[in-house]
């Protein structure tokens, strides 16, 4: 029959091509097959289209072989085998290697302890005959070991070995005599069997051993982990009836009249399986009632159609040449899977015709991989199947070294750096010492497979302590501060005790001078959807938050280059800009060069840390020392500045700042609700500001000293926010209405009948603004989003040009032309040309990018700095005149003296750093402040007079300046200011101002009857006239 099939391949192409469509379906109507699938089927063996037989060993393609391809829920794309992997009772922590696992294979007719088609951890065994041995794994897969003399050869196409070993050498924690058959892989895993093939136990290094308990009949009665966790199995006849975990969890297994598994019941509900007339599972329903998949099979038991949990109908078509097409039911969106004779996936072709190809050595190890973009990664493996080298498509070459126990000992990175790993004993799988490419060593200690100690390169040690079942109980940082966890019977964390003794899970409050006392607990609730994903979070105040997924849509990316130690040293952004990072030998950043060439250097300021890595001191270039102190929970509680001023903080049990006291003893206190949102703040003068929150947890009202300042009403459907503003000096409320588009960009604002509108393009760039008076501003952008033209009613237009790094080269506003030249990312020349003149300014800098000189046509100014980069001197020269100014600072960085020519002014400060006096000769100015640190008045006079001039500042409830009163010997001048609830200066002496609220930095658009326009390039226009900028204005706005 086989020979006839081979000969039939010589028939005409028409007959053979017809077989492709027959493989898809023989029902009535039109049958669609993707061109890619047809092409792969015909090209797999030239024009030969019969489906080649697989040369797969018995049961070796069941379960999840790492070389096979799987689609959807999942289905083996080579064989059509439907798999249903289940983990019923997993454990965590040190006992993570223990679990009750099982797997359904639709092509497996064997009967296990869970019935036909099911394999499980309780079915693991070693079969023996004259030709060899077969290792049956928990997923049903079988590895075959052919006989080789008195022993066995390597597993066929696998990285497994079988040998007879002394039973006493195995860590099974019981008396063992004689010999055992042991299967080992190249990753440290082992499975031990009796000489008759009965599974005894398994492991993968210290702390992972699982021992098998059996009844007298030989059935598995339990599994015991060396950390004390266990599983107990009960049977009803030859089927598992229940499995119980040592922590109290229990599962019951339900069967139909034909002894087929139909349900698994736990405390949550029942997970169910439906069987069709072929005796195959065709539907799986979760305990939450979600239909996870529904299958249809052909006569051989292969899946030909599957309805996923998301409602998509997927068709599987098995074509000639070991080609499988996985598509929608109508043949569209097809992915094509190509397998070799051993069932290993060698090609995947997506719906657009792009192919990914793989190849393997004779033991099933992946060697080359060609991605869909044509780039190839090549791997080299040694005789044990361990990957020894990887060369990527970009040319990166990574080399791995191993010891005789299959443990990684060296990794040579793509940059040539070597990472070394050392181990404490032959049996350890985890390293005790890691040496990075810079020679820095980190030491680790392990006990029974769990990490107990980490010592970093500076000698700081963090310790970990565990409970009797391998659960992490206590973490002790290098300063001895311990965080301790308690667990319930199910292994869930039930309480956490922090270093200062506060315990999560124990309701309490604290107040100065009193003991802890019980209070109502603050409970957070989390709800999950039917698929187990977090859907809703409800905070202690009842605010409900629904979680949605946010995805990037522009496809942009950045490439990062690393040094031999794996630290970023180059970042290439999506627009091609390259940022370079230079580090010292300790890995600290000492210089950053931006894409524009601007260089930032680090090194003047020094930092000191404690053993826990907390910043404890900073020293400026002038020796000014700032010290930081922390409590046992790592919270900063005290800061001492270089002048000796001390700022202290206290905290709530939720680690929120409760009080902050400045060096003058002025204390600001804050209160929070159960969800951690700030609800009030009391300043040193006793004025309390209160915030109210709406049902969504957003601020909806502001009160100061009990008086309502503003209220916000939000309408999510119309995307509007209405602010009722009670800050106007006249007492009448003002209403601001803000409307946003679906991208949360402000498109309209209405205040007191005045309306401003904004327009955007699909990329979110602003294209227009319509002011209340009717003036319209239009914006035009290039493909990178940079503004290249601004046009405003009454002003004309401004055009801009940029270089490849995005730096402004040219700006033309009517008759005013500006140009710039750059070096190392900084402007070095600015030219301003008008019809009447041309004016050029050049800027000189030192190696630290500080400005050392500004040269104009008629003047030259040179600058000098101290080691803290503070300006200390400026000399200005012009024809016939030279002026000089100097500045002096204290160790806290405060200006204490300034001299211009021969006149000197000195400054004095209080402990909080507030300026108290300025003295120049006989003239003296004093300054006063309120409890919140705001300046309230200044007085200027001579040393012998009480004051010739004074200025008083008035502050409103919201903390904004509301008035300025200036007194001289014969005049008084008052200025009234109104800052609205949006924080905008809305009126000056009754003259209204309008702001561009949608701008990242709000800009003035109208003041009274005057139209104002701010534009890039330092341009400011007033009523159609441009104010001529200098180079500083230009550079400041460009940034």
Description:
A hairpin with a 5-residue loop joins strand 33 and strand 34 (397-402). The radius of gyration is 38 Å and the shape is elongated. Among the domains are: 1-55 and 302-361, no CATH class; 82-299, no CATH class; 555-594, no CATH class. The chain has a 41-stranded antiparallel β-sheet. It is built from 4 helices and 93 strands. It is mostly beta strands and 1039 residues long. The longest helix is centred in the first third of the chain and has 12 residues, at 13-24. Residues 503-525, 718-737, 755-780 are annotated as: Disordered. It holds the Pfam family TEN_YD-shell. It comes from Leifsonia xyli subsp. xyli (strain CTCB07). Residues 73-145 form the DUF6531 domain. InterPro entries: DUF6531, RHS_repeat, T6SS_VgrG/RHS, TEN-like_YD-shell, YD.
Short description:
The chain is mainly β and 1039 residues long. Residues 73-145 form the DUF6531 domain.
């Amino acid at each position: 029959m086989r020979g006839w099939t081979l000969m039939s391949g010589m028939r005409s192409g028409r007959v053979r091509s017809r077989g492709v469509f027959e493989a898809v379906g023989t029902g009535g109507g039109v049958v669609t097959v993707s061109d890619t699938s047809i092409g792969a089927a015909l090209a797999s063996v030239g024009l030969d289209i019969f489906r080649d037989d697989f040369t797969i060993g018995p049961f070796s393609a069941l379960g999840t072989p790492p070389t096979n391809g799987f689609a959807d829920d999942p289905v083996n794309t080579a064989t059509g085998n439907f798999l249903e992997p289940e983990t019923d009772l997993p454990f965590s922590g040190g006992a993570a290697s223990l679990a009750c696992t099982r797997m359904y294979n639709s092509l497996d007719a064997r009967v296990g302890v869970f019935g036909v088609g099911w394999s499980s951890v309780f079915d693991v065994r070693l079969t023996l005959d004259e030709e060899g041995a077969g290792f049956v794994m928990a997923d049903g897969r079988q590895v075959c070991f052919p006989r080789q003399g008195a022993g066995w050869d390597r597993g066929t196409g696998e990285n497994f070995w079988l040998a007879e070993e002394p039973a006493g050498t195995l860590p099974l924690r019981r008396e063992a005599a004689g010999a055992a058959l042991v299967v080992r892989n190249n990753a440290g895993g082992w499975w031990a069997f009796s000489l008759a093939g009965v599974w005894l136990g398994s492991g993968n290094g210290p702390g992972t051993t699982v021992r098998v308990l059996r009844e007298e009949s030989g059935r598995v009665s339990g599994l015991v982990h060396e950390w004390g966790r266990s599983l107990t199995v009960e049977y009803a006849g030859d089927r598992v009836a229940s499995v119980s975990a040592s922590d109290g969890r229990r599962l019951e297994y339900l069967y139909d009249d034909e002894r087929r598994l139909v349900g698994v019941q736990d405390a949550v509900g029942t997970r169910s399986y439906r069987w069709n007339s072929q005796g195959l599972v065709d539907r799986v329903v979760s305990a939450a009632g979600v239909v996870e998949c529904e299958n249809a099979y052909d006569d051989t038991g292969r899946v030909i159609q599957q309805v996923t949990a998301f409602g998509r109908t997927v068709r599987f078509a098995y074509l000639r040449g070991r080609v499988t097409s996985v598509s929608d039911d109508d043949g569209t969106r097809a992915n094509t899977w190509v397998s070799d004779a051993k069932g290993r996936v060698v090609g995947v072709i997506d719906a657009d015709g792009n192919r990914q190809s793989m190849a393997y050595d004779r033991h099933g190890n992946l060697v080359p991989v060609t991605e869909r973009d044509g780039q190839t990664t090549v791997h080299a493996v040694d005789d044990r199947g361990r990957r020894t080298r990887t060369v990527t498509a970009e040319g990166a070459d990574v080399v791995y070294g191993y010891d005789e126990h299959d443990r990684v000992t060296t990794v040579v990175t793509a940059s040539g750096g070597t990472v070394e790993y050392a181990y404490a004993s032959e049996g350890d799988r985890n390293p005790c010492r890691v040496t990075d490419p810079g020679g820095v060593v980190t030491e680790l200690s392990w006990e029974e497979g769990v990490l107990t100690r980490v010592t970093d390169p500076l000698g700081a040690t963090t310790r970990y302590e565990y409970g009797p079942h391998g659960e992490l109980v206590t973490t002790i940082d290098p300063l001895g501060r311990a965080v301790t966890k308690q667990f319930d019977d199910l292994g869930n964390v039930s309480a956490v005790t922090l270093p200062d003794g506060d315990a999560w899970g124990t309701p309490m409050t604290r107040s100065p001078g009193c003991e802890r006392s019980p209070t109502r607990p603050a409970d957070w609730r989390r709800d999950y959807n039917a698929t187990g994903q977090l859907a809703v979070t409800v905070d202690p105040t009842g605010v409900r938050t629904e979680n949605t997924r946010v995805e990037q849509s522009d496809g942009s990316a950045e490439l990062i280059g690393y040094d031999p130690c794996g630290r970023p040293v180059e970042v290439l952004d999506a627009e091609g800009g390259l940022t370079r990072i230079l580090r010292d030998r300790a890995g600290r950043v000492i210089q950053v060069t931006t894409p524009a060439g601007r260089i930032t250097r680090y090194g003047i300021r020094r930092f000191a840390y404690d053993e826990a890595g907390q910043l404890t001191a900073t020293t400026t270039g002038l020796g000014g020392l700032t010290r930081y102190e922390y409590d046992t929970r790592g919270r900063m509680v005290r800061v001492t500045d270089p002048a000796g001023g001390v700022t202290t903080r206290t905290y709530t049990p939720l680690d929120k700042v409760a009080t902050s006291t400045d060096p003058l003893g002025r204390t600001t206190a804050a209160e929070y609700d159960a969800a951690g949102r700030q609800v009030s703040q009391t300043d040193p003068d006793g004025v309390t500001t209160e915030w109210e929150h709406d049902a969504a947890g957003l601020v909806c009202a502001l009160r100061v000293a009990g008086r309502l300042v503003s209220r916000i009403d939000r309408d999510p459907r119309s995307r509007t926010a209405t602010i009722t503003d009670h800050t106007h000096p006249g007492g009448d409320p003002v209403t601001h209405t803000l409307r946003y588009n679906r991208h949360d960009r402000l498109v309209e604002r209405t205040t007191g009948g005045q309306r401003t509108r904004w327009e955007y393009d699909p990329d979110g760039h602003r294209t227009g603004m319509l002011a209340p008076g009717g003036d319209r501003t239009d914006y035009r952008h290039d493909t990178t989003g940079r503004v290249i033209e601004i046009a405003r009613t009454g002003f004309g237009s401004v055009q801009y040009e940029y270089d490849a790094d995005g730096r402004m080269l040219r700006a033309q506003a009517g008759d005013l032309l500006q140009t710039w030249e750059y070096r190392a990312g900084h402007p070095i020349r600015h030219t301003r040309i008008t019809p009447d003149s041309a004016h050029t300014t050049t800027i000189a800098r030192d190696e630290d990018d500080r400005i050392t000189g500004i040269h104009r046509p008629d003047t030259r100014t040179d600058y000098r700095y101290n080691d803290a980069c503070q300006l200390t001197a400026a000399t200005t020269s012009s024809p016939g005149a030279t002026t000089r100014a100097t500045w002096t600072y204290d160790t806290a960085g405060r200006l204490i003296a300034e001299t211009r020519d021969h006149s000197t002014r000195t400054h004095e400060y209080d402990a909080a750093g507030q300026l108290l006096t300025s003295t120049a000769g006989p003239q003296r100015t004093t300054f006063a402040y309120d409890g919140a640190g705001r300046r309230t008045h200044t007085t200027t006079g001579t040393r012998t007079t009480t004051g010739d001039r004074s200025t008083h500042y008035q502050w409103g409830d919201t903390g904004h300046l509301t008035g300025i009163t200036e007194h001289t010997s014969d005049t008084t001048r008052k200025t009234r200011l109104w800052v609205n609830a949006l924080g905008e200066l809305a009126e000056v002496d009754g003259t209204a101002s309008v702001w561009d609220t949608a701008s990242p930095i709000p800009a003035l658009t109208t003041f009274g009857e005057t139209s104002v326009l701010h534009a890039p390039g330092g341009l400011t226009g007033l009523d159609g006239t441009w104010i001529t900028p200098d180079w500083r204005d230009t550079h400041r706005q460009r940034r």
